[in-house]
Amino acid sequence: MSFIAIIGSGTLGGTIAHKLAARDRVREVRLIDPEEPIAQGKALDIRQSSPIENFSARVVGIGSLAAVAGAGAIVIADTAKGEHTGEAGLALLRQIAALEASAPIVFAGAAQRDLMARAIGELRIAGSRIVGSAPFALESALRSLTGLSMDSSGVEIGITVVGVPPHAAVVAWEEASVSGQPLSSHLPPHEIAALQARLPGLWPPGPYALASAASRVIEAIVNGSRRRFSCFVAAGGGSIGAMPVELGEDGVRRLVEPVLTRQERTRLENAMNR
User: Fold this and answer.
1) How far apart are CA 272 and CA 274, in angstroms?
2) What pLDDT was estimated at residue 150?
3) What angle, 0 to 180 degrees and rounded to 10, lies between the N-to-C axes of helices 189-198 and 134-150?
4) Do 157 and 211 belong together in one domain?
5) Cα–Cα dist 145/205, whole Å
6) C-alpha angle 102/15/169, rounded to 5°?
7) Is 120 among the domain residues?
8) Are strands 181-182 and 177-178 parallel, antiparallel or unpaired?
9) CATH code for the domain of 216
10) Please, are residues 76 and 16 in contact by the beta-carbon 8 Å criterion?
């Protein structure tokens, strides 16, 4: 099993490294940051927690971007100043593309959708390699809120969020379920509408929610999974939007069309054309 390279040792990057290590499903995590002492310090903190949390994954802090070569997946996270975005983020991706030509690239931040589009349009990185995990964090938050509305566990609830959060996010309420049964048979329409209205306020997710979502997406890429994940992906016509996808070692294996009402379909098409 190959290693995971996390670019940036800010709060998001460090938390992703810790979650991946604690779940113990990857062999090695490389926390890469030009501020090498910060990356090494966070890696040391994570390693020192291994006897308590009972994991054996190796976590190292590295200052050179060349350490991405050969990674099973590359994660674009953050520095102490914030998420990798804009021209600086594009320059970073240009260097990564020159060093590693095949590994999937997971954008873990909530503000990196434009950077994803530029990676495909300007750097010609294959769209199948580009995945943004933030929508999965939003979906998890909505699932938890729905569980609270029903006085139930969010784990039992299946909800798919597509489109472009926060204001152009679309929930596939038609296919939402609770323990395999339609959600509409458990919640009245006005409560579902109230949940929909709360969706914009859930964006952007916090760093810990983003890190949890990113770690699950990364594991699906490196270990394989038949589960669907709502992720930012290239959806055609140069647009980047959230869609349910199946993931594998090459990145996006398949986009899964959600079951939508006519109104939800129209809202999704409008979101993708923005």
Assistant:
1) 6
2) 87
3) 140
4) yes
5) 14
6) 75
7) no
8) antiparallel
9) 3.90.110.10
10) no
